[in-house]
UniProtKB/TrEMBL annotation:
Residues 34-293 form the Class II Histidinyl-tRNA synthetase (HisRS)-like catalytic core domain. The lineage of its organism: Bacteria, Bacillati, Bacillota, Bacilli, Bacillales. Keywords: Amino-acid biosynthesis, Glycosyltransferase, Histidine biosynthesis, Transferase. It comes from the Bacteria. One of its GO terms (biological process) is L-histidine biosynthetic process. This is ATP phosphoribosyltransferase regulatory subunit. GO terms for molecular function: catalytic activity, acting on a protein; glycosyltransferase activity; histidine-tRNA ligase activity. The keyword Amino-acid biosynthesis applies. The keyword Amino-acid biosynthesis applies. PANTHER family: ATP PHOSPHORIBOSYLTRANSFERASE REGULATORY SUBUNIT (PTHR43707:SF6), HISTIDYL-TRNA SYNTHETASE (PTHR43707). GO terms for cellular component: cytoplasm.
Length: 299
């Protein structure tokens, strides 16, 4: 009655647990030489709803300022940090952040995020450092039961690039892949006489598992060097994780990006047995284009 829907107070153990998690993240990021960064709670909406960022204004807490521009409470850290570090020196490569975000499509209006960004660095280094930092953080939290999933946005893009889909059709096909709707995939591609591609995409819906999945598709794509290069990158990341004792790693070759700015490796951590996502990230090079920057960005 006395708080807006989605808002809540914190007491006792809740506060202690949050502060403990925050302090551990700070220590881990400092140990790995990340430089902290903070952005304003109030931002222009366009930072988040432009074509590159792709977030929906309807889920943000927003208002018009005196100049008629839409301002929002920060709904996400990634785009905000990208804006902030676009003007920093290229020699500054590793950044960390944590704090509140505000959205109305979540269980609570206010939630908290912590994360890292690696820019102006070798792509493989950026991807591995993100994964290694996540693993170290989970270990410091004494979380030992989790599975890491690896995917790559280029698989879908490389397979459909040559058939001339409209933007709407491409987005609908991407959604069908995300939702694992085989009949919808077939319907979209039917007018293009792409039966083989349709079967390939439907097969990818279930192409998840260990290294054996990669081995299977290395044979299927033996004449597609660009796809083989993607599979090789995923194998390299698995090898890195295995060297530090992380054996529960799977690939999902049919995973598609859920935000426009993904353009490479994507990864997620799932707690077992609950299945909750405990971290996520990937390569976001395209996110910098809105700030007239060209660089590599892993987060």
């Amino acid at each position: 009655m006395f708080l807006p829907e989605g808002s809540q107070d914190e007491t006792g153990v809740q506060i202690s647990n949050r502060l403990r998690a925050s302090d551990i993240f700070r220590r881990v990021s400092e140990m790995r030489h990340f430089k902290p960064i903070s952005t304003p709670v109030v931002e222009y909406a366009n930072t988040f709803i432009n074509e590159m960022a792709g977030m929906k204004l309807e889920y943000m807490l927003k208002w018009f300022n005196n100049d008629g521009e839409i301002e929002v409470l920060r709904p996400d850290w990634t785009a905000a940090v990208a804006r902030a570090i676009a003007n920093q020196r290229p020699s500054e490569q590793k950044w960390s952040y944590q704090g509140s975000v505000f959205r109305i499509d979540k269980d609570g209006t206010e939630s908290r995020q912590a994360g890292i960004e690696i820019v102006h660095a070798d792509r493989f280094y950026g991807e591995t450092e993100c994964l290694l930092t996540a693993v170290q953080y989970l270990n410091q939290l004494t979380i030992g039961q989790y599975v890491i999933e690896l995917g790559h946005s280029s698989i879908f893009n490389l397979l459909i690039d040559s058939i001339g889909l409209t933007k709407i059709e491409e987005e609908n096909l991407r959604i069908a892949m995300h939702d694992k709707k085989e009949d919808r995939i077939t319907d979209i591609l039917q007018s293009y006489d792409q039966t083989d591609l349709s079967q390939t995409l439907i097969g990818l819906i279930n192409a998840y598992g260990g290294k054996e999945v990669i081995a299977t598709y290395e044979k299927k794509w033996k004449d597609r060097p660009e796809l083989l290069a993607v599979l090789q990158r995923l194998k390299q990341l698995i090898d890195v994780l295995e060297t530090i004792g992380v054996d529960d790693v799977i690939v999902d070759l049919g995973r598609v990006k859920n935000l426009p700015y993904y353009d490479g490796v994507m990864f997620r951590g799932f707690l077992t047995p609950s299945g909750e996502i405990c971290f996520s990230g990937g390569r976001y090079d395209r996110l910098y284009e809105q700030f007239d920057q060209s660089t590599s960005l892993s987060a």
